[in-house]
Write a structure and sequence with these properties.
The chain has about 180 residues and is an all-alpha fold. The chain has eight helices and no strands. Helix 1 packs parallel to helix 3. The longest helix has 24 residues.
Length: about 180
């Protein structure tokens, strides 16, 4: 295990732990840390972390498992049942992907769990109680699934970001925003 791998693992795990205390803010921090681990690697001059994609997928599982712990311990009823079901669906997809290496499987098993977690944790953070009727639950899951499928398609179907580094993406965003 290289120093780069140790630093990335520590960065990602430590960045995910706040979700246990502050579910919504911690989840947002965890997602930002996930996005910025590539920037950390580039900043430290470690562009070639061995098997980064595999490492990233396993670190994602740590993050999602911590989200699941929060959902099981703090939520009840529909919020918890949906969270557990979505987590299990994603873990099946993760295992299928790991066994086959077929990225399109990730379109069949989108990570709607993460979006559901953010929705429910955000509602709780802002003290908004929701009566999760079947119709409301179905509607929320439909919207979240559509949004996640767009993201999964961009990443794994169209592979829009395969040929661009994170630093290049930041530069492109900056140029777009700054004019």
């Amino acid at each position: 295990m290289t120093l780069a791998v140790i630093v990335v693992v520590a960065f990602r795990v430590l960045g995910s732990l706040p979700v246990l205390r502050w579910p919504f803010a911690g989840a947002l921090l965890s997602i930002v840390v996930d996005l910025f681990d590539l920037l950390l690697i580039a900043a430290l001059g470690w562009e070639n972390v061995p098997n980064y994609q595999a490492l990233d997928k396993y670190l994602d599982q740590v993050q999602l498992l911590l989200f699941l712990v929060v959902a099981i311990r703090r939520w009840d009823g529909t919020e918890r049942r949906v969270a557990v079901g979505l987590y299990l669906w994603r873990i099946v997809g993760f295992i299928a992907f790991e066994l086959t290496g077929e990225r399109l499987l990730l379109l069949l098993f989108p990570n709607v769990f993460e979006f559901w977690f953010l929705l429910v944790a955000g509602l709780h953070a802002f003290r908004r109680r929701v009566n999760w009727t079947p119709r409301l639950t179905f509607g929320a899951l439909t919207v979240l699934t559509i949004l996640k499928e767009i993201q999964e398609w961009a990443l794994h179907g169209a592979r829009l970001f395969d040929q661009i580094t994170f630093v290049d993406a930041l530069r492109l965003i900056w140029r777009t925003l700054a004019g």
